[in-house]
Design a protein that fits this description.
2 domains; two-stranded antiparallel ribbon; 8 strands; oxidized pyrimidine nucleobase lesion DNA N-glycosylase activity; single chain; 344 residues; alpha+beta; Endonuclease III, domain 1; binds iron/sulfur cluster
Length: 344
C-alpha cells in the first residue's frame, strides 16, 4: 500500500462527508452519507448545508413533513425515495435507539437506506472505529492496482478486511474517493496522475505496454466502417461491463468485467480484414470463433489493424504483461491464448 502512503502525502483535499464529520455529529454523518449516494460531491455539500440549517437532530427529522424534506434535499439522486427513508429512519432511531445513531455495524445495517458502504463510513467517521468503506472508487482503484481481484464493492470490502493493514482502514475511503473523482476516474487521467503513483501502477504499465506493441507492429486504429479489404492482423479491444458466465464452444467460464484484447488474423483472399472483423461485429451471426461468444455480451471499443502477418508474435508479446484467457488460441498455433484480460 505504498501508493496509499503517497496519496496521504500528496492529496490535500477531503471528500464532503469527511469534512462534515469534523462537526463530530454521528447524525449528520449518517444523513449526509445517505444523501451522497449517486450524487455529485458539490450537490451533497450544498444540500447537506441547506438541510442541516433546518434539521439538526432526530426530533427535527421526525417533525418535518415529507414534502418539505423532499424539497430540501432535491436534487440529490433518488431524492423522493431518500426522503421517505429518512422519515422512517428518524422514527426507528427515536423508538429503538433513544434518538441516537447506533455505533455498531450490524445495528446500522438494520436502518432503512443504509447499506455496507454507509454503515462503514459512519463507523469510521462518526465513531472513529475500524471499518472499511468501499464505494465504487475504492473498488475500481484497488482492482486497477491489482491489490484485489473482485467483482463488486462487497467482495472488495471482504478482501480488504483480510489483507489491508488496519492503519489504512479508516483513511482509504477518503483518499480514494478524492483521487477517484479527480484523477483515477472510470476513464483514468493517467497523464495527470502523480508520477510516483504512475510508475508503480500496474494498470498504467499495461496501457503503456499495449501502446508499445501497437507501435512495434505498426497497428493503426480504424473505425468499423473503414476496415480495408486486405490481409493482415487485428486486435479487438472489448469491454465487458458486467462479470458473467459465458459458454464458448463446449466450454463455460466466468468472465470478469473489464477489458479484453483479442488478436486474430485474416490472411485469406476473401476472408480479409474487412470480412473477418465484419463477421465478428455482426449482431445476428453464426458463431464461428470462440471470441464471438464473448462479443455477444461485450462492446468493441477499439479495432487495430496491421498489414503484417504477426498474430502469434503479438499474442506472445501481450502474454508477457496481460493475463491470458485460456481457450482462445488459433487452431494451429502453440500460443497459450490470443485473448488477454485487464480490469476496468
Ligand atoms: S496511473 Fe492511471 S490508472 Fe494508475 S492510478 Fe494513476 S490514474 Fe489510475
Amino acid at each position: 500500500m505504498e501508493k496509499i502512503e503517497i496519496l496521504k502525502e500528496k492529496l490535500n483535499k477531503n471528500a464532503v462527508v469527511t469534512e462534515i464529520a469534523k462537526e463530530k455529529s454521528p447524525f449528520k454523518v449518517l444523513i449526509s452519507t445517505i444523501l451522497s449516494a449517486r450524487t455529485k460531491d458539490e450537490v451533497t455539500e450544498e444540500v447537506s448545508k441547506r438541510l442541516f440549517e433546518k434539521v439538526k437532530n432526530v426530533d427535527d427529522l421526525l417533525k418535518i413533513d415529507l414534502e418539505e424534506l423532499e424539497k430540501l434535499i432535491y436534487p440529490v439522486g433518488f431524492y423522493r425515495m431518500k426522503a421517505k427513508n429518512l422519515k422512517k429512519l428518524a422514527k426507528i432511531l427515536k423508538e429503538n435507539y433513544n434518538g441516537k445513531v447506533p455505533n455498531e455495524l450490524d445495528e446500522l445495517l438494520k436502518l432503512p437506506g443504509v447499506g455496507r458502504k454507509t454503515a462503514n463510513l459512519v463507523i469510521t467517521l462518526a465513531f472513529d472505529d475500524y471499518g472499511i468503506c468501499v464505494d465504487t472508487h475504492v473498488h475500481r482503484i484497488c482492482n486497477r492496482w491489482g491489490y484485489v481481484e473482485t467483482e463488486n464493492p462487497e467482495e472488495t470490502e471482504m478482501e480488504l478486511r483480510k489483507k489491508l493493514p488496519k492503519k489504512y482502514w479508516k483513511i482509504i475511503n477518503n483518499l480514494l474517493v478524492v483521487f477517484g473523482r479527480e484523477i483515477c476516474s472510470p476513464t483514468p487521467k493517467c497523464e495527470e496522475c502523480f508520477e510516483e503513483i504512475r510508475e508503480r501502477c500496474p494498470y498504467y504499465k499495461k496501457i503503456a505496454y499495449f501502446d508499445e506493441i501497437l507501435k512495434k507492429y505498426e497497428f493503426e486504429k480504424v473505425s468499423k466502417n473503414n476496415i480495408p479489404a486486405e490481409k493482415g492482423t487485428y486486435i479487438l479491444k472489448i469491454k465487458l461491463n458486467r462479470g458473467r458466465k459465458i459458454k464458448f464452444g463446449n466450454k463455460e467460464r466466468f468472465f470478469r468485467k473489464g477489458y479484453y484484447f483479442y488478436v486474430g488474423s485474416a490472411l485469406g483472399k476473401s476472408m480479409n480484414l474487412k470480412n473477418r472483423i465484419g463477421r465478428h461485429l455482426k449482431k445476428e451471426k453464426k458463431k464461428f470463433w470462440h471470441i464471438d461468444y464473448l462479443l455477444e455480451f461485450g462492446d468493441v471499443k477499439g479495432i487495430y489493424i496491421s498489414n503484417k502477418g504477426c498474430e502469434c508474435e503479438v499474442a506472445k508479446d501481450l502474454a508477457e504483461v496481460f493475463k491470458c484467457v485460456e481457450g482462445f488460441g488459433c487452431s494451429d498455433c502453440k500460443c497459450e491464448s490470443h485473448l488477454f484480460y485487464m480490469p476496468l
